Amino acid sequence: MTAPRTDARNDVRPDTDTIRRLPKAVLHDHLDGGLRPATLVELAGAVGHTLPTTDPDALAAWYYEAANSGDLVRYIATFEHTLAVMQTREGLLRTAEEYVLDLAADGVVYGEVRYAPELMLNGGLTLPEVVETVQEGLAAGMAKGAAAGTPVRVGTLLCGMRMFDRSREIADLAVAFRDAGVVGFDIAGAEDGFPPADHLDAFAHLRAENVPFTIHAGEAHGLPSIHQALQVCGAQRIGHGVRITDDIVDGKLGRVAEWIRDRRIALEMCPTSNLQTGAATSIADHPITRLRDLGFRVTLNTDNRLVSGTTMTREMSLLVEKAGWTLGDLRTVTVNALKSAFIPFDERNALIRDVVLPGYDLGTR
Predict the structure, then answer these.
(1) Which of 162, 188, 284, 365 gives 20 to 30 Å between its CA and that of 74?
(2) Class of domain 8-359
(3) What CDD domains does the record tag this protein with (predicted)?
(4) Which residues are annotated as a binding site for substrate?
């Protein structure tokens, strides 16, 4: 569906203003990692939670500094503050609605948002009430986006936490809400020491119910984590997956890398986040460019927009500036994301045909 790379349009190096207008798709983005700083300050005050600072700009800077520690564990620890304000109906409704509006303002036309309902129960909500409330907020955001002329479709991934034992419950939730906006499942949290195979019961249930799932793998742990996610658990996509390069030597693909490329298993890559957690050394040398050139189905994502201080426009701009990406490359990863989205084929196809490809044609004018 994409134009061949020999097309002259593919060689355009778009500027930031052009990139901001391009239609985008994001598959890997955490709801609790993308709050507006001002909203976090306001909601924290309402529930009596103490933040590192109550100045929104200073708070955003605090998050960015913590995220740049190079330590995945410290990176994850910053979520203490966002989760503290996402324990009530009011907090969940607002953060979900604003999440969608922020995507729309960034030119995103399709997004998948993920979060762990089990981490949002301290205010007395039940697991189903958490999901219902988030879906209500997302629906409100989509309605406002459409009314403003910036429509965006958002699907939800429910996350089980890999260090806890509630993943089967969360898988049951994903099945129960599959016709109410939940499009899939994931496991999240500290990767090293918490293998995906610990949650085989959840994955077997999801496969039996035909619910797709992705697994965080190959970020803080290496090739065995990716292999287990694919061959033991049956993941349809891989979250991050940067360590797949351990299976590529002098351009020759090992068995796992070959399996991923040949079966078009999408890699949900997050350059800024990977750099901050130590999974990559620089944007210029991030594996996404090498893997793109080797024919992998790479997708571009934000991971956590507040924590990483980023947007899809920023991620795209960094690859253009630091890694020599072109308009054609940006279109390719956008189409890749939609091809691998957890929504029906005809809906994916319509977004590619009617929204993305025309939008990238306009980017050359």
Answers:
(1) 284
(2) alpha beta
(3) ADA (cd01320)
(4) 30, 32, 189
